[in-house]
Amino acid sequence: xxxxxxxxxxxxxxxxxxxxxxxxxxxxxxxxxxxxxxxxxxxxxxxxxxxxxxxxxxxxxxxxxxxxxxxxxxxxxxxxxxxxxxxxxxxxxxxxxxxxxxxxxxxxxxxxxxxxxxxxxxxxxxxxxxxxxxxxxxxxxxxxxxxxxxxxxxxxxxxxxxxxxxxxxxxxxxxxxxxxxxxxxxxxxxxxxxxxxxxxxxxxxxxxxxxxxxxxxxxxxxxxxxxxxxxxxxxxxxxxxxxxxxxxxxxxxxxxxxxxxxxxxxxxxxxxxxxxxxxxxxxxxxxxxxxxxxxxxxxxxxxxxxxxxxxxxxxxxxxxxxxxxxxxxxxxxxxxxxxxxxxxxxxxxxxxxxxxxxxxxxxxxxxxxxxxxxxxxxxxxxxxxxxxxxxxxxxxxxxxxxxxxxxxxxxxxxxxxxxxxxxxxxxxxxxxxxxxxxxxxxxxxxxxxxxxxxxxxxxxxxxxxxxxxxxxxxxxxxxxxxxxxxxxxxxxxxxxxxxxxxxxxxxxxxxxxxxxxxxxxxxxxxxxxxxxxxxxxxxxxxxxxxxxxxxxxxxxxxxxxxxxxxxxxxxxxxxxxxxxxxxxxxxxxxxxxxxxxxxxxxxxxxxxxxxxxxxxxxxxxxxxxxxxxxxxxxxxxxxxxxxxxxxxxxxxxxxxxxxxxxxxxxxxxxxxxxxxxxxxxxxxxxxxxxxxxxxxxxxxxxxxxxxxxxxxxxxxxxxxxxxxxxxxxxxxxxxxxxxxx
Amino acid sequence: xxxxxxxxxxxxxxxxxxxxxxxxxxxxxxxxxxxxxxxxxxxxxxxxxxxxxxxxxxxxxxxxxxxxxxxxxxxxxxxxxxxxxxxxxxxxxxxxxxxxxxxxxxxxxxxxxxxxxxxxxxxxxxxxxxxxxxxxxxxxxxxxxxxxxxxxxxxxxxxxxxxxxxxxxxxxxxxxxxxxxxxxxxxxxxxxxxxxx
Lengths: 741, 197
Prior knowledge:
The complex is a heterodimer of chains A (741) and B (197). With 741 residues, chain A is α/β, with parallel strands linked by helices. The N and C termini of chain A lie far apart (82 Å). Chain B is mainly α and 197 residues long. In chain B, 42% of the residues lie in helices and 4% in strands. The chains are: A alpha/beta (741), B mainly alpha (197).
């Protein structure tokens, strides 16, 4: 039988029809869909035993406990630790994504050197030895006793054991200066300590017992301090008598989340915090609502014969005068001052915004002065003393190297700048650091794990292990009322190309031939941490929380320092006992800075009064803002950034908000593009209309840049901070700007 | 007559050939069989001889986490030495228990990464018997070969043994439809986020 071409087609046709009566097409469609979801390069968590480990988050200084769900040894999920004495079961969004960070696309995995290639800035691999040799040569060129030729280590999380190591290293080299950044949440406390005639020791906010918080822009309900602590305090208010519930008044130009949720939002004019604070002080004094006994006994400059006393300063800031500057009606200033006095104990907190930066020293002095007038220092519900974490280095050796905030470092004085890897979670403009560097030949070395933020300006990068890759200690958060100490364990193996900062400092000291501490040279970082734990154990103070079982036991019940080490390395936390009330020394309400009276007078006029000539040319006021932990692209999970981008919950880099009437008057459209121009440069941004924005103000987000995760940030991704004006006191809160389409 | 219907017959032959290929040849081509590392007898362990229950080995932790397949230390608890004369037990003791090496079991019911399944919610809270999903697995004397889909690498148990997905047994098939229909029968939510977290 001959098979024709027609027969063949009929057979194939029959087969095709038959195929639809078999599982072949249906199963293949299903399999193809599954196959496309399972490419070989899609990362998959390991299969294995589900384990729970505990550690402490080091992404900011809050020191929150973290419960780590692991498959095998691979962390796959982070959550808060129930009953943790510091974080109270909470972990912020940045902390929840912390286990993604070792796989951050901007991760630096080997020493890098900044080079210029074809007109572009790039980072090329370099040997660690070459970096050490370059630094050693630069150190050898430093002339001892020349203050404008300093070597600085910038530490954004002071108080750690590595911080002590840095200070010891800086003592061994000429012109060493240990530098920290502004600790938003603790700035008022730092200024308060500076106002004391004698050292008063560390202090914290007794938020649990206070009845009222007057906040000057601090994001109290949006990641401030230790977020879990604040959330627990707010949660507890529901069960309280309405008359005794915590009252929060937020003094802030922007309608931030805290302003939205506060009992009152006082929308002051940009940069006029000092005027408002001094106006409140005027009312408190004139209506005898202040602690007269304390002020009479302790304040050294409340009254002075030279006419430059605190009283003389405050006299000028009548409610009407303060209202003219701050934009708040005199009646409201009076009412706020009365509410403060009636709701004792009350706390007044400064600090500022994580993106908008700290308030100036003068604003903080005026705010700290309110706390002193209210007499809340050393009293329950006010600002109370805590003890230091026991530390053998603090008792056996008093550091001689100066410690100062970066804004206090003289301009053009840093020859060598070493940036520690830890971040504070708050913005720090490169322009601020650049102002402090010598104009020519400065050497910047970053120990950051990520090629983002300030690191992209560094000449060399010696990447440190990132979160979860090395053991670190976590001291008490700056706002805490009791000292605490915990450890962050190494749950992952660090990549081969990264270097533990302690080891690197030792190597650098050896190469540079500086006499670094002998006991450190032969030691490991873990041994240093064990020494610190042993010192805490010997002090026999406080209690220890065990994350595994959620129990807290007195340290006296811990059998040995090794057992304490084991508990802490498994995510436990040591909490100090309450400090005894200390007698308060005399204090200066004007602060101890030179020309304090005049400086406060000038600050009281508002920040924008310092550049009146720019009003005509620049009709807008640029106010940057951000959220803690996400003011840059480092230390934030790129997956979380994508989530926020899609949900629109937070504004990202390049997004701004203006008042609709202002926007329309200047030809802007909601959702359209515009150029922001300042004296520093111009940047294209997306504009959103928001009726809560003050007229003539443009609020610009200092957030992570989505593009920066997919493109090399070294190519110069622009940041709104690059446009901000740096005042003489290094604040960048308000800048005159022009907005055009 | 034959000549008259020749075209139709050829067409039907094509249909028939494809039905045979589709229903009998295709499954053989699609699935790859692999024997388990050792032949484990559930019947010996759960029967009168050892008297164990499912949960004795496939246990829950105090916090509700399911341990899944027991680790080798669990096996080693009884099989420190040989208890019988089975060649597979000899392999167990010498190759795995003695060297403290985990047995590379091929898991029939392994769900894909994007599906979250909590044993404790189904077994403890909903009181569903193990057999509802796993069938008479616990009564077998041997372990059947593990069949993996060459395209997806999924276990054949997920699609179910009948390629038509017309299952004679309730436990045959562990795809989303199977989960959803059981949830529907029991009046449990079928929200996406219940399983795809």
